[in-house]
Design a protein that fits this description.
The chain is α/β, with parallel strands linked by helices. The protein is built from 14 helices and ten strands.
């Protein structure tokens, strides 16, 4: 299982929309995908499912088929995690359903992190629970990749979610707050990775054959989202912040010395993509319950909108390929029908 987390402790950069569109794109490119909603706000789940479907999962405190429902037996002390339920949104695309109740696990995840140092078996079961649920969901769906969406904070829940990730990709906005987020995130990832390795050394004998994550949390690049464009260039206010992103990523995330102060997001090999803002198409996509790049004239995408739809498809196809190349994910060689149709 290849697991990729999309994480920035600064909210509002479009992270969940990014995961949603990439999940659809990888499925369109021929992979089997699990989208894991580890954010208690469950925004990814609401993007995938209709309201009547959400009622079935969340009404009257029924959690049996959500991520929390799989976690519940372990939290309540009645057993280990249950087999996670996934929803097949489309052929090759499965959702591990989020749940606002997942936030109630924060206390256990905080205390059991410390208890791992004492070699307590339950502590390791709790901290590895999200990783094990993602692994089981991946096995059930025969998935090639798990895309993990998490909330914008540095709390115990996200720490356990990041433990489940082999690779971490950072979505950024071209603003001061995203740069500050990089400064916070870099040392935190280093600490979490180191602390988990220390805890693995204390794994009790009773768990020697028990599967636990390596938690490599490898920084695999960043994506700049939601910048305004005029004449194919970011507007000046955004451009000033974009100039600072490459050096900040190197310094805060990779702990590298600056090679040159002239590097830009367009030339930085760590920048996976500068994604344009498709603001005018998002309401149409939300209404149609599909990604922007699958919109049709029947959905209201007419005239110049269809050119933007084609551009969006090509942008996300290119991004998906770059991420796959960066993390060692093999894409099928065949070209999908929709890829042929949307290539100019």
């Amino acid at each position: 299982m290849k697991s990729i987390a999309f994480f920035n402790n600064k909210g509002g950069v479009g992270k969940t929309s990014l995961v949603y569109h990439l999940a659809w794109m990888y499925a369109d490119l021929g992979l089997s995908v699990v989208a894991a909603d580890f954010d208690p706000q469950a925004n990814l789940t609401t993007m995938f499912l209709e309201e009547n479907e959400l009622i079935e999962f969340w009404e009257k405190d029924r959690h049996a088929r959500t991520i929390y429902g799989a976690f519940e037996p372990l939290l309540e002390g009645t057993g280990d995690i249950a087999a996670p339920h996934t929803v097949e949104v489309s052929p090759g695309l499965n959702l591990l359903v989020g749940d606002i109740a997942l936030s109630s696990a924060e206390g256990d995840l905080a205390s059991e992190w410390s208890n791992c140092l004492d070699g307590r078996p339950r502590a390791f079961r709790v901290i590895s629970a999200l990783w094990r649920m993602a692994s089981l969901a991946s096995e059930q769906a025969e998935a090639n990749v798990v895309l993990i969406d998490v909330g914008p904070n540095l709390g115990p829940l996200n720490r356990s979610a990041l433990v489940a990730a082999e690779d971490v990709i950072i979505p950024l906005g071209p603003d001061l707050f995203s740069l500050q987020g990089l400064r916070n995130l870099g040392p935190t990832l280093i600490d979490w990775r180191r602390q988990w390795q220390e805890r693995l050394e204390q794994k009790p004998a009773s768990l020697q054959d028990y599967p636990l994550p390596a938690a490599s949390m490898t920084p695999s690049g960043y994506i700049v989202l939601q910048h305004a464009v005029r004449f194919d260039r970011p507007v000046k206010a955004y451009g000033l912040w974009m100039q600072r992103i490459p050096l900040e990523y190197r310094s805060s995330i990779l702990r590298l010395e600056a090679e040159s102060d002239e590097i830009t997001t367009d030339t930085d090999p760590h920048c996976l993509k500068n994604l344009k803002h498709y603001r005018s198409l998002m309401p149409l996509a939300q209404e149609a319950r599909k990604p922007i790049f699958f919109l049709k004239p029947a959905d209201g995408a007419i005239g110049g909108h269809m050119q933007s739809v084609r551009e969006c498809y090509n942008d996300f196809r290119d991004l998906a390929r770059r991420i796959a190349d960066r993390v060692g994910l093999t894409l099928p060689l065949q070209t999908r029908a929709s890829e042929t149709e949307l290539t100019p």
